[in-house]
Design brief:
By secondary structure, this protein is an alpha+beta fold. It has a domain at 1-32 and 57-64. The protein is 27% helix and 41% strand. The protein is built from 2 helices and 5 strands. It has a 5-stranded mixed β-sheet with strand order 1-2-5-3-4.
Length: 64
């Protein structure tokens, strides 16, 4: 599977996300998402879409 990438902009900021087939690693700004988002509520929001699609643990996500 190739890399799927997307970006979003707001004012002068740019956010980029990359989705690849993998083991479920999620990285935000070079850190594991559980370190970057320290509260369980935010961690839930990060993984909610993957859980609904039943693909949690199948894709790696890198966002910066």
């Amino acid at each position: 599977m190739e890399v799927i990438n997307t970006s979003g902009r707001r004012k002068t900021s740019v956010a980029r996300a990359y989705l690849t087939k993998g083991k479920g690693n999620i990285e935000v700004n070079g850190k594991d998402y559980k370190v970057y988002f320290s509260t369980p509520t935010l961690q839930y929001y990060v993984t909610q879409a993957l859980n609904i699609a039943k693909v949690n643990g199948e894709y790696d996500i890198k966002a910066n």
